[in-house]
Amino acid sequence: TGPRRTRMTFVSRHISDMEPLPSGLLLLAALLSASRAEELIYAQVGQTVTLNPPENYKTQTYYLSWHFGELELAWTNRMSGNKVIKHENWDTALSGNSLVVKEIRQNQFGIYECNVDKKIWTYKVLRLKVSAEPPSLVLSGRTVTLVCDAEPPNSLQKPGIHWLNPQGEKITQATHRVQVSSRHSGWWTCVINLDRKEATAQINVTVVDLYSPPMAYTSTSSPLAVPCSVPKASWEQIKSLGLREGHWQFFPRSKSNLVSADAQRLFTLSLEEPVSWKASQTRGLTPVSDFKTPNLSLGRTLGRADDRGDYVCTLKFESGPPLSRTVQVNVLEIAASPGTVLISGQQLNLTCGLGVPLTSDLHLKWISPERTTIRSGQLTIPAVGVRHVRHRLCQCEKYVTGV
């Protein structure tokens, strides 16, 4: 988890009319009770709370003072200025005529009063607790418990509470347990409802997970890139979670797309400073040059026909299941029938493919020397001649091979 943040919102009768004040303010929300001349304010311990005087009071009022129980905290006087009265364990200030309570303590929740020329406005500051357990970074696959606890204003009123996940989906629980993945990483919002009015508080959950695309493509005339990384985390943070091992493995695939059970260990992670790879069977692959961030990707200048297979990136920790991602690499190849050495007038059949069915986002096309295209993996030249003795390209997205 990361830092908590809150947003101050003065809520009208209709929730859709809410307009947030600047996000730098740490006061959570103000809820105005319809039955009492009392303003309800939710805040968390340690936040700064700002109490504003009633909107309809006159700026030329002779005397205004702020109180908490028997304590007078501050006053303003049109004739003689203003004063903040110092009390032990209180850090208060005036902003105009508003009272600012900095880093509010547990015993400073309760009833505040604003006295304007013998008229009293009351403010009830209520405790709000938003937490996540574990309270720091969490590995994908582990369980996080989110708790939103809002103090009720009285014995007859109990606020409704629910959560919104980072995708905005509603969870109708004040306490929510979830087995996290990368989609759970981000800001979670606790929503408090009372008398058709709403307040919100947020907490950041940071999920450490590996990221890699499920498929990658190459050819004998294109670079090979096998991506794998840990977004939004440093090596120090990952180590703090109990990292004890990391490695790359390769499982070859046959042309019939069968995966070999025999794994080849490519690289093993050395956790000594600075973090680095120890090579085993590298297959000519090299890790990324900048290893300051957790970018575990591998690459080579050109692909090879025997690159087809599953590349598995794994991080193991002292407890719990490992983080692991598999990248299936497919190689774009061309087959020529009856061959690439022909007699003038012979028919030539060219077949271009990856050896596996294409996904919906991939398209094969042939590009002639004249730059005309045929959107198909099949190309037939009924009678070859001298004018056909030039390269033709088969393209699958950005990966190109030629004959």
From TrEMBL:
Q: Which domain of life is it from?
A: Eukaryota
Gene3D superfamilies, sorted: Immunoglobulins
Protein name according to UniProt: Ig-like domain-containing protein
Ranges of residues in domain Ig-like? 126-206, 321-403
The record's section on SUPFAM superfamilies has: Immunoglobulin
What SMART domains is this protein classified in?
Answer: IG
Q: Which InterPro entries match?
A: Ig-like_dom, Ig-like_dom_sf, Ig-like_fold, Ig_sub
